[in-house]
Amino acid sequence: MNLRHIIRIQCSDRKGLIAAITGVVFANNLNIVVMKEFVETNYNLFFARLEVSGEMEPGVMTTQLREQLPGDAAVEIIAKEPKQLVVLVTKEYHCLCDLLVRHHFGEMNAKIKAVIGNYDVLQNITERFDLPFICISHEAREKQAYEQEVLALLQQLNPDYIVLAKFMRILSPDFVAAFSNRIINIHHSFLPAFVGANPYRKAYERGVKLIGATAHFVTNDLDEGPIITQKVIAADHEYDVAGMIKAGHEVEKSVLADALKLVLEDRVFVTGNRTIIFD
Amino acid sequence: MNLRHIIRIQCSDRKGLIAAITGVVFANNLNIVVMKEFVETNYNLFFARLEVSGEMEPGVMTTQLREQLPGDAAVEIIAKEPKQLVVLVTKEYHCLCDLLVRHHFGEMNAKIKAVIGNYDVLQNITERFDLPFICISHEAREKQAYEQEVLALLQQLNPDYIVLAKFMRILSPDFVAAFSNRIINIHHSFLPAFVGANPYRKAYERGVKLIGATAHFVTNDLDEGPIITQKVIAADHEYDVAGMIKAGHEVEKSVLADALKLVLEDRVFVTGNRTIIFD
Amino acid sequence: MNLRHIIRIQCSDRKGLIAAITGVVFANNLNIVVMKEFVETNYNLFFARLEVSGEMEPGVMTTQLREQLPGDAAVEIIAKEPKQLVVLVTKEYHCLCDLLVRHHFGEMNAKIKAVIGNYDVLQNITERFDLPFICISHEAREKQAYEQEVLALLQQLNPDYIVLAKFMRILSPDFVAAFSNRIINIHHSFLPAFVGANPYRKAYERGVKLIGATAHFVTNDLDEGPIITQKVIAADHEYDVAGMIKAGHEVEKSVLADALKLVLEDRVFVTGNRTIIFD
Amino acid sequence: MNLRHIIRIQCSDRKGLIAAITGVVFANNLNIVVMKEFVETNYNLFFARLEVSGEMEPGVMTTQLREQLPGDAAVEIIAKEPKQLVVLVTKEYHCLCDLLVRHHFGEMNAKIKAVIGNYDVLQNITERFDLPFICISHEAREKQAYEQEVLALLQQLNPDYIVLAKFMRILSPDFVAAFSNRIINIHHSFLPAFVGANPYRKAYERGVKLIGATAHFVTNDLDEGPIITQKVIAADHEYDVAGMIKAGHEVEKSVLADALKLVLEDRVFVTGNRTIIFD
Predict the structure, then answer these.
(1) Best of B33, B35, B52, B278 to disrupt the C interface by mutation (most C CBs within 10 Å)?
(2) What is the pLDDT of residues C29-41, one digit of tens each?
(3) What is the value of ipTM here, to two decimals?
(4) Buried b vs exposed e over A137-160: b needs ≥16 C-beta within 10 Å?
């Protein structure tokens, strides 16, 4: 049996942490496949991610690690198993289809439990991949009632992460609070430029020469959550708004796929409004 | 004699413009080395840049072209000759040195007439390249008096373009108005993100995964002028503010050099707050 | 009625070509939506692509243009209509699925008539998109017989272009000759590096820091045909061969999609072993 | 006193190496500023680079580390001090000037002891930066005699690294052997494409859409040594050979600067013909 686990540690920094951690790992006869760590000197914070192989009792291991670490240490030991996802969409197909194909062929370390749309536009394509699509319309009803219904469904599905794959509704604080650092959004600009609606129109009007996309965790502040990945592409004067939108789709799906890969492999730490990512 | 001229035309669009323009060029027995044009359909505007070879009487040619073009046409005929530049700097050497080397070896289509600094830090390196350095300090005096002195010197030097190569003073409207679309600044962020002071600190605090630089014409609105070129590089969590500044220097000098090349070869049109660039 | 046509011209260069071409266009009361041209001075060749709107008699127009152009001129006038494609695959799904999704949502200027595989691995996914999949196995038979069967099917389907979307068989000269400059291949390296089989293994062994992909027209010389698009991504020492293959998939599908877009919009000219592309 | 040292370890891999190494570091009361390690599983090789602060006796430390490591371990402990460089050039100024500016302003962790040219073209610019330039002409003499003279001078100067900043002479095996993995070359193509002379001409003729540069250690096989860094830029059909050369200069100086930074900070390990780089 060659079990694989991810050990994630986040704590205040002090001398000897790596020796202490790797000492415990070695004493448990585990092999370190890969280890990465980082000290955020501005805040005296230590982060580490180890991928280890060998038989392990996670509870015991966690206790042993805690004994060696500062009192504020967060220790996670995670078996390398697929995560559970729910994807929220509106009408645009490009990010969803990218995920559907990757999921269908087992490329993601994840299982998509369902796709939820506020329109039924993407029901057909979702069902072609044998995945359930639930349409919960926001139209002609109060935002709170709409969100309650989505929230109830999500709590029943109980995913590890919620992916907003071009979901064009702004979620209210209660909703977001229920899934802290577990909702991943793709925003169609290189944040913090062009927060909010119609970023490509704003980009066109500002005359920028780059357009981009940003994947980030959702917080209560619109488009202000911790950034996971960002990419840009060149856009010269020949790009009108429609051209930017079309070209932007390519970046959006690529950025979202990259961000999800990092999250699903437990590579992303959130600290304040920033991310530490061991790729 | 194989004279080269640039013909630049900007006017409202209508059918037959290219036929009309190239007809005049052909009738004058000129050869079109390269021609690029663009129609901004949102505003019904036509832009063209032709590089032609052959003997030409620019005044006659301009008249002939105007006869064929809409009444709002701006027609420029420019001999391919080096432009005159003045460079304004503060303390950072990286952009200035990049220009000094390119200038020294004749890489730029330009002649640097002088470097003006508000400190004398860069005097030594400028003089190593046999160029005059004038230090006009802003310290212990009113902004207006300081700017008047710089402005007087600039008017005497009478350059085609003024390059702010990490010049860290904000110019007042009168100053800017004296050189409309002739002052080029390098800003150390991918605008419109992180306008104003300390963009790298803001980038660090926002936790962005890209840092960049923007070269733009200076207008009265801080960092809001027409953008010429932009580039970004990846910046992960290992970059603190100092690391971003260092890495950013590489982008800044590259972006400024690219922008200047475009401007000095008469490839940049300004329309509203946007640029049309025939590269 | 606002018809759109593409006019493509390729001929030896001489003074006055643009005036002559645009004169004909104007005389026919057509509007030039966009025009791009290029002179390859090394070989004295002129290339132009115009997108025009308005009513037109292509046969008459072609005759009028020929009268104004050198005797070696190739003139094409093409209505903006979807092209017909056949896609050839082996076992890898990533490029095919990228095309299937784009095709399904009308993103490509093309109609996929069929997918032909030398294995049936990709039959299921193709049929989920309501497209015919024909499996023609190459196993246990002579190459010539295999190719004859594929060729016969292709001649019956009669596509404008054949896309080798990770089709891992080398086509013999007769096959290629039947579709000159109409077969587009995606090769998983930045050509001319790593021609032939197993480019990622070769890349790993050479220790390169970039991996890439190349879309090109197929000629008789393996991986030597005219290049349409190329892209690379960084690959550090953490990439083993499997990691390179996985990362490479992202580049391959992106490069192939970009190349197809250019070809399907009649933007690509082939001259010798090079391409002139008006994007 | 806050001394900084780099600890570099290269050995066959086995369980417990990180615990052993960090245990020694902790026992010596040193603080790990940053640590990176890598296991090359194909060859069962372990690589680590630690940056530590605190007072240390390198000889004692090395002995203690060796006791904990496999018999084949290479252990280096290096004080963070500037390296000594000699730069070899021919006629092109762009890479040399980039180094001269960085060196002049203390940007490199290095001291340039001298610039040696086989022409005197770059003497003037070198001396403007107060650095000695020695011209050793290769003309009208045997290659062996020429190389002996350069070699004698290099042995007298005794640099840590030799930088070939567009030095266009091929060095013979004896010369290379005298400075194994200590000669860094910049080649003006993305290797392994376009080995040898005139890579831009070959790139033009092949019709590639990317051009690039590669910094590598020099070995006896021309352009076959371990690659340190590579970059490419897009090059469409408008680039003729001269245009590629000009655009390529930008990449070349950037790639060489990046590679030197990595080497001078002791971040590069060579294993076989590949490099492991902890950046």
Answers:
(1) B35
(2) 999 999 999 999 9
(3) 0.95
(4) ebeeeeeeebbebbbeebeebebb
